[in-house]
Amino acid sequence: MKICFPTTEDNGLESTVFGHFGSAPFFVICDTDTMETIALDNQDKIHEHGGCNPLAALGGEKVDAIVVGGIGKGAIMGLNRAGIKVYQAYKGTVNQNVQAWKDGQVKEMSPEGACGGHGNGGGCGGH
Q1: Residue 68 and residue 77: Cα distance in Å, rounded?
Q2: pTM value?
Q3: How far apart are CA 76 and CA 18, in angstroms?
Q4: Is residue 123 part of a domain?
Q5: Cα–Cα distance for residue pair 26/110, rounded to 1 Å
Q6: What gap in Å lies between CA 36 and CA 7, rounded to an integer?
Q7: Is residue 30 part of a domain?
Q8: How many domains are contained in the chain?
């Protein structure tokens, strides 16, 4: 399975998972069978809040799931329409989150648990 993690840097499995999908500097994609990773620059990090295009951000790279600290409702719905599930990340590294994934500790996020807007009275589900 290929899982995408928004990250602060490109350090492979030791990359720190970023708190929000749309403004993450990088995405680290991990193949959970081989534990090999690739990193992508976020192709859509300059956008208005709520205007994230998650598929453009991934630059066409195919993934099965996204594990993220926070993400907007529209982005979750767009990813779900494309067959990509979205899960709530734990703080820490990609490797720590992959282990949590393998242990069944990450939970799927719904649009109702999405970020409601920064600075507008909305919240971001604990990220």
Answers
A1: 14
A2: 0.82
A3: 16
A4: no
A5: 23
A6: 16
A7: yes
A8: 1
